[in-house]
Amino acid sequence: DDAQRDAWRPTTAFVRDQGVRIGIQLSHGGRKSSTGRSWDRVRGTVPVADGGWPVVGPSTVPYTGYAAPRELSTDEVRGIHRAFVAAGVRARDAGFEFVELHAAHGFLLHQFLSPLANTRDDEYGGSLHGRARLLLDVVRD
């Protein structure tokens, strides 16, 4: 959000003043969200009653050992696209010189790419072209 953008400005300015380039990674955990802290050795999804939150994904296919996600609606996928683009603009405005989109390790953008996690039959599923649509739209915009 804008408060985070503003809070990062002094840090990015300091790093650039040292002659170093600075970037940021943007991601969404999707069906692998709402997890415990790794140092507590908590595995799987933290229940809502214990401070977790409902997870979402391209489909209702759960990650092994995690809660089943709620399938995102087509409008929600478009909203995530807009949110990634807005985050990229804020990152630039905060002084970051590059953005890395985390589209691996089973996080949301990767989940859309995977035919195992993405069983959708709309414009964001099916063929590789459909499964890649969200990632490609974010990169393009």
Give a quick summary of the entry.
The protein has helices at residues 2-17, 74-94, 108-113, 128-140, and strands at residues 23-26, 56-57, 70-71, 98-101. The chain is mainly alpha-helical. The strands form two sheets. A two-stranded parallel ribbon has the order 1-4.
Q: Can you describe this structure?
A:
The protein has helices at residues 2-17, 74-94, 108-113, 128-140; strands spanning 23-26, 56-57, 70-71, 98-101. It is mainly alpha-helical and 141 residues long. The longest helix has 21 residues, at 74-94. The protein starts with a helix and ends with a helix. It has one domain (2-140): Alpha-Beta Barrel (TIM Barrel). Helix 1 (2-17) runs parallel beside helix 2 and helix 2 (74-94) packs parallel to helix 4 (128-140). The model has no long low-confidence stretch (mean pLDDT 96). The strands form two sheets. Strands 1-4 form a two-stranded parallel sheet. The protein is globular.
List the helices and strands and how they pair.
Layout: H1 2-17, E1 23-26, E2 56-57, E3 70-71, H2 74-94, E4 98-101, H3 108-113, H4 128-140
Parallel strand pairs: 1-4, 2-3
Helix pairs in contact: 1-2, 2-4
Task: Fill in the keyword field for this structure.
two-stranded parallel sheet, mainly alpha, 9% strand, two-stranded parallel ribbon, single chain, 141 residues
Main pleated-sheet profile = 2 strands, parallel
Count the E strands. 4
State the order of secondary-structure elements, H for helix, E for strand. Answer: HEEEHEHH
State the separation between the terminal residues, measured CA to CA.
18 Å
Rounded to an integer, what's the Rg over CA atoms? 17 Å
Mean pLDDT across every amino acid position:
96
**CATH architectural label:** Alpha-Beta Barrel
CATH superfamily descriptor: Aldolase class I
Q: Briefly, what CATH class?
A: Alpha Beta
